[in-house]
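Example 5.3 — WbqC family protein
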Amino acid sequence: MKVAISQSNYIPWKGYFDMIGKSDVFVLYDDMQYTKRDWRNRNKIKTPNGLIWLTIPVNVKGNYYQKISETRISEPGWAKKHLRSIELNYKKAACFDSVFPIIESWYNEVENFEFLSEVSHFFLENVCNQFGIQTQLVNSSKYDIKGSKTDALISVLEQIGNVDTYISGPAAKDYMEMDEFAKRNIEVEWMNYGAYPAYRQLHNGFEHRVSIIDLVLNSGFNRDLILQK
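Solution (predicted structure tokens):
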């Protein structure tokens, strides 16, 4: 069984969905500390004037050590603003007419959600469904996580059971203790984020590291475009 573990991100880029698709089980590790100016509550879309952030406003003042799962949305109306930005900047996209109504229904659904994790999980599940990704998405709260960093990962993998491959992003090479995986006969498979096919985009230049929203409005829910060459 292949397993990946990662914090949830808001409307993440194609590489995130590629990692989900390569896994049998994908654990959303939202028991981690929330980090500001990160991908947890924001992502990028393209505009005629360059990249802009779509950011979900959250309560962080005085809550430095709060978990991602404990992070509350602070302002109503954010969903309508994000949807309007998407509509204005992608109304000429090739798949706008067929895909935008789907995205619109998602934003209408989440506009009254209280917690950031609820929003992120909702988008992840629905985007996966549209791509035909059948990976099991599991919240980390299901597990009794012990230790930190490598110990925490191993703790989750052992509770899942029958894991032979752990899939990870390359940034984790800085802290993962590889011998701990080897002791348990778990192979570590590193994601390679440098080999994705391009697709037709609006606005100047090509950008790989933008929200999945860009890809689906330009090219539809084409799973070949989120797979490495």
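Remark. Residues 116-131 form the longest helix (16 residues).
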